Amino acid sequence: MNLHEYQAKELLKKYNVPVQEGIPVDTPEAAAEAYKQLKVQFGNEFSVVKAQIHAGGRGKGKIVGTEQRGVAVGKNAEDVKTIAGNILGGTLVTIQTGEAGKLVNKVLVAQDVYYPGPNPIKELYLSILLDRAKGTNVIMYSTEGGMDIEEVAHNTPEKIFKEWVYPGGKLEPFQARKIAFNFGLSGEAFKNMVKFVTNLYNAYVGLDAAMLEINPLFKTSDEKIIAVDCKLNLDDNALLRHPDLVALRDTTEEDATEVEAGKHNLNFVKLDGNVGCMVNGAGLAMATMDMIKLSGGEPANFLDVGGSANAQTVEAGFRIILKDPKVKAILINIFGGIVRCDRVAQGVIDAYQSIGTINVPIIVRLQGTNAEEAKKLIEDSGLKVQSAILLSEAAALVNKAVSA
Known about the structure:
This protein is α+β, with helices and mostly antiparallel strands.
């Protein structure tokens, strides 16, 4: 589950992680008021207006139809109001959103941390995630933080450092000091970085995060260490331990069909192809998607109805697939083990009769428990459904459908 920047920062503060303070707002007028509050609190003349979407690259991204970037500096209340007005309600396209972009419903008006002082400022990078190859958590960090971190990783990988921490263990003091040393820090900044990294790792573990990224990780001119931006992804499987965090989910940032599928306990992932598929079991689903690809089609989705599917769940899955205008055919490939084939067949029939006219070919391959009963149900229904026994037969029917 992804969180917005402003949500992630509030959670970090509970673990004593210093962050760039800000106020989330959803109107230009509220943005101007937020600027005034921050000016009184911190004495800064400038404030940063940041679009709040679940995607990176906001600083380089632009609002569709304008030159307005997703992150911009306002010099006064009126300036902040104008920037917020340009961003709110617009579609922000970044390197991570793709051409479709994301609608911006909220902006964060944040304090200016680039103020002058006795020491040079530094933009650093730090992230924590699971290294699956080693079976440990890994802290990745670099002295080259900022908007071009992807290019740094690609062109100069030697500038990316890694520190591994075993799950269940803690970040040892010597490891935190090593990270601060590799950042090239000394004195007060060194001490502050040791505290920052230690508390940040505690937040990663305590929140059951899947990924925690701070970019830029900022050293101010007066030697403070601050999280200027934060991307936080929580492990969905651990949310039962954090009922308070479930409320932070923003479903408007997620694919609507995936949200609907979740309500019916369907494992659904939207793809860009032209053949919708409904399968039971992740392994069979992957094999079915491969078969669709080899047959000349492209999978439009991954949909696993699971072992507890009934006619209602199958109907719900069927409706979700049909919402995709790109779908030229639907392949239902069920092996009746835990879920009975006749349940799936009844779900298809119910959906077909409930929806009415369906203009795309439907190919059904049912094998296993109650396969004969399922075949009879479909044949007696009078529906325009094409049946297949072998996977090769289903592949041929898919090829015919997408070639038409």
